[in-house]
Amino acid sequence: MNNLKSLRLAKGLSQQALAKKFGCSQQSIYKYENHITEPDFNMLKTMADFFDVSVDYLIGYSSCAHKIEEIEETALNENELLLLRKYRSLSPSSKKILQQLMDEWLYNLSET
After folding, report:
1. What is residue 21's DSSP assignment?
2. Which residues contact 95 (CB under 8 A, 6 or more apart)?
3. With 57 labelled, which of 26, 101, 102, 103 sits at a CA distance of 20 to 30 A?
4. Cα–Cα distance between 27 and 20 in angstroms, integer?
5. Who's near 11: CB < 8 A, 6+ residues apart?
6. Rounded distance, CA 111 to CA 100, Å?
7. C-alpha pair distances (Å), 35 with each of 5, 28, 38, 51, 64
8. What CA–CA distance (Å, rounded) separates 74 from 51?
9. Model pLDDT for residues 4-40, shown as the tens digit of each residue
C-alpha cells in the first residue's frame, strides 16, 4: 500500500475519517499504510475507486495513477483496433515493456 498514505493526506483525511468512509477501523488503515497487513481485493477496489486511481498505483506497482477504462472492442475506431491487434500479438515480456513505457509517458503528461 505504498501510495495510500499520500492519497489520504492529499484529500486531507485522517486515518479515522478514511476508515469511516471504508467501513473499517482506524487500526486497519494504520496497518495498511505501514505494511503490517494487506487489504482484501474488495477493499483494494473500493480504495482505488474512492481515490480514482488504479489498484496498481495504490499498491505501488505502477507510477501512473490513471485508471484504464474498460472499452468494448466494438467501440474502437480502426486505428485503435489496429493497435489492439498489434498489442495482442506481442510476447508477454514485450507487453510488459510497452505497458511500462505507456505508464511513464502518461505519468510525465500528468506532471505538465
Report:
1. H
2. 87
3. 26
4. 11
5. 51
6. 17
7. 11, 10, 7, 19, 21
8. 29
9. 999 999 999 999 999 999 999 999 999 999 999 999 9
User: What cell does 110 get?
Assistant: 500528468
C-alpha cell at 79: 486505428
Q: Which residues, 6 or more positions from 67, have their beta carbon under 8 angstroms from its beta carbon?
A: 48, 52, 53, 54
- Cα 34-14-46 angle, rounded to 5 deg: 70
28: cell is 486497519
The residue behind cell 485508471 is 67
Place of cell 495513477: 65
pTM over 0.85: no
Contacts of 13 (CB under 8 A, 6+ apart): 21
* DSSP class per residue in 28-91: HHHHHHTTSS---HHHHHHHHHHHT--HHHHTTS-S--PPPPP--GGG--HHHHHHHHHHHTS-
